[in-house]
């Protein structure tokens, strides 16, 4: 059989493909512009804003600028990581370039080409997702398709809406029903785009007594519809979920469809579980979506295709009403929205599409199987387990702390938020994030259908996620258990205040309170702020696994110290004792420095007076003649003066000058006593040993004496030495802080101007 003749490719198309390939290589290379290039670009932009200067720039320079703007100043490759763009992603990007090129074709050729692209893509999607005899609307905003469906329903129920407009709606108000589990802000967006009041939106609660907590209450919906009809309103449209945004639950679509047929309502379905319609075995709850009036698909995140539109498939027999609702357009350029998807679907093929959806489903099932083996983990799943085992698609939401009291929900939310953030940071390819569910609270969500294709998530990433989860669960449990112990220990200390902040993921908060009561409020607050600031720095310098912080960014309490997660071997009592000991030491040191300025000022004044008096006595002893130049030298030569050295010592504790005679007389005794009274040697910390760990509780505890006790002993001994300093009035010879001014009266004449040198030095 002869092969069909190979047609020559359009040179423009070939060049476009090559340019796209080169551009992607430059943007994905991660090579930033050289320093020389940056300097040259700065100089070239000196007189012109932006790159519009000279004769223009080449493609490589422009792409280099884009690459620099994309990555900024990040030097680490991990910080520059973006969505994984494979070959199928390149096809989607090529579609946008082709759309611009095709739009310049002659009108008739453009019409034929766009019609072919639109019809092919619609046919493929309808067959892939089992939606027979459907039409398609392609849109950038994934909410825009629902807006068009509402317009179509309004035009269907209000025949003269195109001419009469809102006056028809005022006589019989339309009502749009949506589940309480729908994505936030969806109903408000609809009302805003349609020009309807918020009273036209009815939120249907989920089941509270029977069935899943995330499925729409069908019986209550039936009652709401009957009540609206009796009050003269028009039930217009119902929004159902095939995979709620939070936990991936699917509404009872078959029952909802029957209800909509009964009351002549439009049923629209959206959700991530619609992706599983391409699989061979699909849950009957999801299959019911193929019988609904419209569904919205988001193939971009499902298949890892960047910048492809969302698609709303719908069934309607009147083309005029579809045109009135804006679902069809006579502009060929608008039909080119489907071009990136048209190219990507052909590149992947049926097997490639099926493989990606199946892979994401298997990842979800893999995680669910492991979660069942982990203690203290509650999975937010539909009541029948078949939703996960057969569907293999719903996002898995896990929250730690099963079985705790309801009053601890805020604490559990904080711990789970920390858990989700840590997992997302340590296993970034897993794509986990944190969600807020109305009944379960804060949970960690794993939704591979929305993230796996873009991030390239594999089974080993799920295994790493499970491993990290197993490491963090004991930490969460210990922290929750030690929170009350920490609070009790803090409340027993008069110098500490316990800070109640249930949003903090850790042991809790504490504040060291100054014991001085003779200060006004402003000065007291300043002292508390300074003490706690220094205390936080000291604690952060300790060799411990604990995390110390000044608290959440928007914490109402100020001047606090917050302690992070705890481990099994934490000694809470010694942790609190250490905080008290260091805080007391800082407070006592602060008092000394606060009084230092006044003490030094008085001491300098007294020193000046005594030095002046000494100079006068010197003048009386030596006589006036010895102060005259030349004459004094001759007198000193024939009759030297035997002057005695009178030293002075400045006692900072008492703020006075004393003679140095007693100091020198007992110098040897002081050295001996100081060596005897020196602090006891603190037991050295063994290699790998951490503070605040109970002996025998962990492998790091290798000494019978707690390292925290060693630290506190050193603090107590230091405080003992300072207490001796404070008693210098009774024993002036011991442990002085000295500033010695030696005033030696020599037999030589002192030149003028040097009499005050000692005073200047003292200052």
UniProtKB/TrEMBL annotation:
InterPro entries: GrpII_AminoAcid_Decarb (IPR050477), PDXDC1-like_2nd (IPR055103), PDXDC1-like_3rd (IPR055102), PyrdxlP-dep_de-COase (IPR002129), PyrdxlP-dep_Trfase (IPR015424), PyrdxlP-dep_Trfase_major (IPR015421). Residues 597-624 form a coiled coil. GO terms for molecular function: carboxy-lyase activity; pyridoxal phosphate binding. Residues 699-709 have a biased composition (Low complexity). Residues 379-402, 693-714, 743-763 are annotated as: Disordered. SUPFAM superfamilies: PLP-dependent transferases (SSF53383). Residues 407-480 form the PDXDC1/PDXD2 second domain. Residues 379-397 have a biased composition (Polar residues). Its cofactor is pyridoxal 5'-phosphate. It comes from the Eukaryota. Residues 486-591 form the PDXDC1-like third domain. The keyword Coiled coil applies. GO terms for biological process: carboxylic acid metabolic process. PANTHER family: PTHR42735, PYRIDOXAL-DEPENDENT DECARBOXYLASE DOMAIN-CONTAINING PROTEIN 1-RELATED (PTHR42735:SF1). This is Pyridoxal-dependent decarboxylase domain-containing protein 1. The lineage of its organism: Eukaryota, Metazoa, Chordata, Craniata, Vertebrata.
């Amino acid at each position: 059989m002869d092969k069909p003749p190979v047609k020559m490719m359009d040179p423009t198309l070939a060049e476009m493909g090559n340019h796209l390939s080169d551009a992607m290589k430059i943007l994905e290379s991660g090579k930033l512009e050289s320093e020389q290039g940056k300097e040259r670009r700065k100089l070239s932009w000196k007189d012109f804003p932006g790159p519009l200067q000279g004769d223009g720039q080449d493609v490589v320079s422009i792409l280099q600028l884009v690459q620099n703007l994309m990555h900024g100043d990040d030097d680490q490759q991990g910080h520059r990581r973006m969505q994984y763009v494979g070959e199928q992603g390149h096809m989607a990007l090529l579609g946008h370039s082709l759309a611009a090129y095709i739009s310049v074709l002659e009108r008739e050729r453009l019409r034929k080409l766009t019609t072919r692209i639109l019809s092919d893509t619609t046919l493929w999607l309808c067959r892939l997702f089992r939606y027979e005899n459907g039409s398609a609307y392609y849109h950038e905003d994934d909410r825009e398709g629902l807006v068009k469906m509402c317009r179509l329903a309004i035009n269907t129920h209000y025949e003269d809406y195109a001419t009469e407009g809102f006056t028809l709606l005022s006589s019989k108000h339309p009502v749009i029903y949506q589940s309480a589990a729908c994505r936030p802000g969806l109903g408000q967006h609809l009302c805003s785009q349609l020009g309807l009041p918020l009273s036209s939106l009815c939120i249907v609660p989920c089941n509270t007594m029977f069935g899943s907590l995330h499925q729409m209450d069908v019986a209550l919906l039936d009652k709401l519809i009957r009540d609206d009809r009796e009050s003269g309103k028009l039930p217009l449209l119902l929004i159902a979920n095939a995979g709620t945004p939070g936990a991936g639950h699917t509404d009872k679509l078959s029952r909802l469809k029957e209800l909509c047929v009964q009351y002549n309502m439009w049923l629209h379905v959206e959700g991530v579980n619609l992706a599983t319609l391409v699989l061979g075995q699909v849950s009957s709850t999801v299959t019911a979506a193929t019988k609904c009036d419209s569904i919205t698909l988001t193939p971009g995140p499902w298949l890892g295709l960047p910048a492809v539109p969302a698609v709303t498939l719908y069934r309607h027999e009147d083309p005029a009403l579809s045109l009135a609702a804006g679902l069809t357009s006579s502009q060929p350029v608008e039909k080119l929205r489907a071009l990136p998807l048209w190219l990507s679907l052909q590149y992947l093929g049926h097997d490639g599409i099926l493989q990606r959806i199946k892979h994401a489903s298997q990842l979800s099932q893999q995680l669910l199987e492991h979660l069942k083996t982990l203690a203290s983990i509650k999975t937010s799943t539909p009541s029948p387990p078949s939703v996960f085992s057969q569907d293999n698609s719903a996002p898995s939401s896990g929250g730690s702390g099963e079985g705790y009291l309801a009053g601890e929900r805020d604490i559990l939310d904080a711990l789970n938020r920390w858990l989700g953030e840590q997992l997302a940071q340590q296993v970034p390819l897993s794509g986990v994030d944190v969600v807020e569910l109305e009944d379960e609270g804060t949970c960690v969500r794993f939704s591979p259908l929305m993230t796996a294709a873009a991030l390239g998530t594999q089974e080993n990433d799920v295994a790493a996620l499970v491993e990290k989860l197993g490491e963090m669960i004991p930490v969460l449990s210990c922290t929750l258990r030690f929170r009350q112990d920490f609070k009790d220990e803090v409340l027993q200390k008069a110098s500490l205040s316990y800070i109640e902040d249930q949003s903090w993921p850790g042991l809790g908060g504490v504040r060291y309170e100054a014991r001085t009561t003779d200060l006004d409020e402003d000065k007291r607050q300043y002292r508390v702020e300074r003490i706690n600031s220094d205390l936080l720095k000291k604690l952060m310098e300790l060799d411990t696994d604990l995390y110390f912080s000044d608290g959440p960014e928007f914490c109402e309490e100020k001047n606090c110290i917050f302690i992070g997660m705890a481990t099994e071997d934490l000694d809470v009592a010694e942790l609190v004792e250490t905080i008290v000991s260091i805080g007391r030491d800082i407070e006592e040191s602060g008092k000394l420095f606060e009084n230092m300025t006044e003490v030094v000022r008085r001491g300098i004044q007294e020193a000046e007076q005594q030095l002046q008096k000494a100079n006068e006595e010197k003048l009386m002893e030596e006589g006036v003649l010895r102060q005259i130049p030349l004459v004094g030298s001759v007198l000193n030569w024939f009759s030297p003066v035997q002057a005695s050295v009178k030293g002075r010592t400045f006692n900072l504790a008492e703020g006075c000058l004393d003679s140095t005679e007693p100091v020198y007389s007992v110098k040897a005794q002081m050295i001996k006593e100081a060596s005897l009274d020196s602090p006891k040697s603190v037991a050295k910390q063994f290699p790998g040993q951490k503070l605040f760990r109970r002996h025998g509780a962990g492998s790091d505890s290798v000494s019978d004496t707690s390292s925290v006790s060693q630290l506190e002993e050193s603090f107590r001994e230091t405080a003992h030495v300072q207490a001796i300093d404070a008693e210098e009035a009774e024993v002036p010879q011991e442990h002085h802080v000295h500033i010695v001014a030696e005033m030696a009266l020599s037999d030589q004449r002192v030149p003028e101007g040097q009499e005050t040198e000692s005073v200047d030095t003292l200052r």
